[in-house]
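Appendix B, record 7
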Amino acid sequence: MENNIPYVHRDISWLSFNYRVLQEAKDPAVPLFERLKFLAIYSNNLDEYFRVRVAQHRSLLRVGKKTKKKLDYDPKELLNQIKIIVNDQQEEFSHIFENQIVKELKKYKIYLLRRLDLNGRQRDFVENYFRDNLLPFVQPVLLLKGKIRPFLNNAALYLVIRMDDKDPKIKEERYAVIKIPSDHLPRFIHLPSSSPGRKDIIMLDDIVRHSVQSLFPGYVIQDTYSIKITRDADLNIEDEFSGDLVSKIKSSLTKRNVGPPSRLVIDREMPKKLREFLLETFGLEKRGILVEGRYHNNFDFFKFPDFGLTQLKNIPFPPLPYKPLEQARDFFTAMRSKDHLIHVPYQSYESTILFFEKAAVDESVTHIKIIQYRVAGESRIMKALMRAVKNGKQVSAFIELKARFDEEANLQWGEKLEKAGVEVHYSFPGLKVHSKSALIIREEKRGKKLYAYMSTGNFHEGTAKVYSDLGLFTTDRRITTEVARLFSYLETVKAPTTIFKNLLVGQFGLLENLIRKIDREIANAKAGKEAKIILKMNSLQDEEMVAKLYEASNAGVKIDLIIRGICSLVPSKKGWSENIHAISIVDRFLEHARVFLFHNDGAEEIYLSSADWMSRNLRRRIETVFPIYDEAIKTEIKELLQIQLDDNVKSRIIDEEDSNEYMQSNSDLSTRSQVELYYYYKRKGEKN
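Structure tokens (predicted):
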């Protein structure tokens, strides 16, 4: 750690964030079906965490002592800490689902039945469903000591069967495993109802449990337990500096789902003897077991049937049109008139899509450039790029192949764009390009004119519906010329000879510039001037930046943090961070925007960013932090920051105790920032 500063390991802090997601699932004020979705989000988050983060720590346990000595933590100790926290959370998860949500569903005549709850008609239905739909997929395999272990697919559901041989001479228990084919069939199956208006459901797992005896005629079934294996998903290519990165990623993707196990998830009711047998059978260490409830792969709750009960969902917030661009007579004239800011999903993403669609058919446009990090499966933006090539435009796309879990999709889009005639540039080995930028060049009467779009989020029409991000449309030469310089670097891999003065760009002074801005606030505080910093981001982990913020706090700089996820800094700690106040907001939309405000003795500087303050973002990526020069937009950003800082409904306090307590205020009025922001933009739109 930096001078032994108070510091929370990123993977412990992340678990605290995921617990905030779980808090939403148990909040009775959240609509019931939305609570199920938060269970799904929690589960999905945890799967990825084990496939990537925990897998890396397990790998470190296997390396030599010399490598371990370079670490500033003990992987074994960290893994033990993770296991304790996750086991506690899993117990709470089961309690929320079984004792709260299942009971709440019954109030609306929705019954999630187990096999022992079925009446005769329902048993017949289940047995017929198993015979007609599941038999082609279930392949029972006996587990025998000393025999070749069966391969379990990553994240697939399995039942382990505990049974006795019908031959009374054979006393030893037998075990077998069966796959639950939830990748082929719905997880939730509607049953014939036992009374009018009643909605009966059974999970696919319990249909298999009910019918499993027919698969083992020579045995007596004693019990069944669900299990799944999570496999290492890290492609181990981030730091490779040579070779054909495209072919390496293609090769690695084929291996991802057959990587070494990072955990075995089991039913907590499973007997110790069976647990030990499974560890031996699948070659796992004891620390590799994670105990959950009766059901796994709870991200399937995303698909829980809603029966048309819209009152059990969030009130719809249809995206609001941004009229100055969406309804403009001429899109590019509207951009020249002033800078524009959109805030999705409160406002529509249509302006961003139109930026590319208008350029594709505009006779004056000669060039379109874009950085692709994550893209929707069906993308109007990508189609516009291909259309632009047909219309004679010169189109170039930089595609980052190392966007985790989107590598395959990005490869496919790269191939499509290349076939269409787009000039495609791929990842740099050893360096991620995480900037969210696009540039259009038009030939106009006075010469070439540059139009830039910069965002805190990806060019992704899907996530724009649920991720809260900010996007800037600008023709300000201070910004556009430097965006052009960035693209020149990405296309030629030649470092720019002219420095970036307005943009803060990763690998070209981003970290140093941010430190200078904090140092300026420190100097102002020491000189008796007002000094203040507001930082909104997903994650704050970089040790040098954490230490710098402690230094600023001790100098008297007032610091407000709005951190959705990882926060390695410990706020409000005596002697270190008494001037730092930190909150996290978890609500219906995922907070994804990064905003940095520096008071600067009254001449406030506001930046939007693609970068969190993680070591990887500040040191090993091409990121862009872009300034806001338009005074009206500055005011808007300050207002939205204040709305979030005033949140006393969905904001949690980040503190030394890691309590995740909800923010309290002296106000009699409740402020739920995401609701307030929607109506803020609605009022704003009505004035335009």
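Remarks on this record: The chain has three domains: 32-312, 323-498, 505-687. The CA atoms of residues 435 and 623 lie 5 Å apart.
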